[in-house]
Amino acid sequence: MSKSIAPHGKHTRIPTLAEYDRLYRESIEDPRSFWGKQGERVTWFHPFHSVLDIDTEEVDFSWYQGGRLNVSFNCVDRHAAERPNKTAILWAGNEPGEYKHITYRELKHQVARLANVLKAKGVQKGDRVCIYLPMIPEAAYAMLACARIGAVHSVVFAGFSAESLRDRIIDAGCKVVITANEAPRGPKKVALKHIVDVAVDGLKVVESVLVARRTSTDVPMTVGRDTFLDEEMSRQRSTCPVEWMASEDPLFILYTSGSTGKPKGVLHTTAGYLIYTAMTHDLVFDLRPDDIHFCTADVGWVTGHSYIVYGPLCNGATSVMFESVPNYPDSGRIWSVVDDTKATILYTAPTALRALRRAGDDFVKKHSRKSLRLLGTVGEPIDPETWQWYHDVVGEQRCDIVDTWWQTETGGVLISPLAGVTPMKPGSATRPFFGVKPLLVDEAGAPIEWKQGTAIQGNLCLASAWPGQARTIWGDHRRFRETYFSKFPNLYFTGDGSTRDEDGDWWITGRVDDVLNVSGHRIGTAELESALAQNDAVAESAVVGYPHDLKGQGIYAYVVVKPEFKDQNADQIIGALKETVRHVIGPIATPDRITLVSGLPKTRSGKVMRRILRKVAHGQFTELGDITTLADPGVVEEIIAAAKKG
Ligand code: WTA
Fold first, then answer.
1. 604: CA distance to ligand 1 center in Å?
2. Is it true that 106-246 and 519-645 share their CATH fold?
3. Whose CA is nearest to atom 13 of ligand 1?
4. Distance, CA of 576 to CA of 478 (rounded, Å)
């Protein structure tokens, strides 16, 4: 039950729940003093003079004003000086047995070389660089190289399509794209460079494409634009001075889906993000000096940013980077990586656990897992059965589980047990982290009061500021204000629903907006509908989620086809529609079910009544609520019949 020793010999002890309570109160009552002390977690080139300034009207948060620091220095140089031979990144490649240890010393050299390559390509402080890479060490080098010279990275998950990638490159105005020839992913190879070629075709903004050679496959190179990353790096020096950044200088943009429009570029800045990820990584996981931290996420998502790269490396820990997939070559892969790397912490998503559980306990038991001391989950609610399996079978009842709730926009974990401190409840994210003030409000925006002994339910909002929070949406501050701070005035609205139980613990129930959570990935229904619209056969469509055994939520599309396509084979149309979505967004967005209908249930003012579509998708065909306001109540019968059929 005792708290670890933070790296650099700083002792942050949270021995008991009472101590958590005391510190939590302090963090809420006097946030400036609390967060001011946390500023000591990083090394400053110049100290800050003010902990927090907020302009509520503009929704402008400024943390650690006056300070200057560099993220790459904090994640690399200071550890390279103190523990050069410690493994920073323990890379587990796609094939079993394929491992590479990158020490902090080597990390420093590689990051410096890559930073020098970027400089040679004309990248300057404030310029944007797109990273579209598999899970190879170069992904981390590239992120840290950007941070080193003050460039802003935009990592795009390498499963997104050329069109999604192109949109993101244009929106952020990326000067350079860093990619690989191919990405091995389980038994497959993804032609990354080809996707980049399509994505950047004719784009003037992209001056250079740097290509890592992950496999031996040749790829076409465009003269004057494309060069091989290894060749470029070998020509550069292994030292590169850091750019001392202001606390609020941008660190990265990461695109995520919302309930309307195209994905938005969530912007995180330098000091607050780094301090918050380092602190949460330290305290939530009860970090110890010899920990091997294995987070199975991809760096294309925020979990990879915060808990593979920035949090662990800022803390001088060893971070496992896993290139493959949990079922390659079989469903025991994660456990074999745990054994091979001697991972002490495993941090993964419920969707992976559900699939591994279904594959059978033998795959787990074949491996020892004795190095593990702590288990974590993230990305979606975990059902109590899966939680119990994780605890009893994977962790053999000796490992705590931290169910961590947070978002791309929050930068780091906001609600979670602290390992070894907070009593666990299967399925509950339990308590807020320091400085975080969750609040439930009803539809009208009125706070719902919680009293000991009673449970409440509502829209989850946050009533305080914390250093890791997003500062804006790239190029669209108004959208930032409107999306997060206008539905409920002066509160940050998460888009999630939650209950708070009799003991005061939090249970996140999932999105209450038009965002789906499919296998832990956020996908907007509006985005799916506009992807479907790119298929000629589509007159209009409406997409909703439904409960899915493995994915958590499945994608259910109701599609109205144009009259001239009515006579075509339905299966062929459905197949083509799925292909369109894969092509426009990427395979993760492929609809699970598509039902062709002749009309959507709309009110007389033309609004689609999603409530009805959701119920039908859930398999509920009666008690659909009041349908008298529909322009044509008859479509409901047809929708039900179509859903039953297919
Ligand atoms: C969901 C991932 C329940 C939630 C870090 C949130 C969770 C969205 C949990 C953010 C959890 C994340 N329990 N739900 N422990 N963690 N979520 O931006 O709906 O990819 O709003 O960030 O995932 O997804 P994002």
1. 35
2. no
3. 381
4. 37
